[in-house]
């Protein structure tokens, strides 16, 4: 993991978006985006390589977007009963068609 530039965790059990020093990783910034137990994201990113630019926090899904010069990364957590059309609306607003975008996470599409 120490060679990674981005580490995305899904279905986190964080109670809030408050940073806790026990969650820190050397050389990484941390962005949390949570609405409760099992409903959230924790995204670590290498300092100086990526910047956090946006969070979407809905009851049934969460999105965190990171950006760099060449690529955007959007981390997603969607509950089983989250509306796909609502999620798509947010994703279309976040995706820059002129830039490579990596979409990753748990979409719960079965």
Largest sheet: spatial strand order: 4-5-6-7
Low-confidence stretches: none
What percentage of residues falls in helices of 4 or more residues? 10-25%
Q: How far apart are the first and last residues' alpha carbons, in Å?
A: 29 Å
Oligomer: single chain
| Chain-averaged pLDDT | 91
| Structural class estimated from helices and strands | mainly beta
**From the alpha-carbon coordinates, what is the Rg to the nearest angstrom?**
13 Å
Assign an overall shape: globular
Major sheet: 4 strands, mixed
Total DSSP helices: 1
Give me the count of strands: 7
SSE order in H/E notation? EEEEEEHE
User: How much strand content do the residues show?
Assistant: over 45%
Q: Overview of this structure, please?
A:
With 110 residues, this protein is mostly beta strands. It has one helix and seven strands. The model has no long low-confidence stretch (mean pLDDT 91).
Summarize the structure.
The protein is mainly beta. Helices cover 10% and strands 46% of the residues. The strands form two sheets. A four-stranded mixed β-sheet has the order 4-5-6-7, with helices on one face. A three-stranded antiparallel β-sheet has the order 1-3-2, with no helix packed on it.
Keywords for this entry:
globular, 110 residues, 10% helix, 7 strands, three-stranded antiparallel β-sheet, 1 helix, mainly beta, four-stranded mixed β-sheet
Topology:
Layout: E1 6-10, E2 28-36, E3 39-46, E4 51-57, E5 61-67, E6 71-78, H1 84-94, E7 100-106
Parallel strand pairs: 6-7
Antiparallel strand pairs: 1-3, 2-3, 4-5, 5-6
């Amino acid at each position: 993991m120490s060679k990674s530039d981005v580490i995305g965790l899904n279905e986190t059990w964080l109670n809030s978006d408050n940073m806790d020093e026990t969650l820190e990783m050397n050389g990484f910034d941390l962005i949390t985006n949570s609405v409760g137990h099992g409903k959230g994201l924790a995204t670590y990113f290498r300092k100086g390589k990526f910047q956090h630019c946006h969070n979407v926090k809905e009851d049934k899904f969460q999105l965190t977007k990171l950006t760099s010069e060449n690529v955007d990364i959007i981390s997603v957590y969607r509950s089983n009963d989250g509306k796909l059309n609502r999620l798509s609306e947010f994703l279309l607003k976040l995706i820059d068609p002129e830039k490579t975008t990596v979409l990753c996470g748990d979409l719960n599409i079965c």
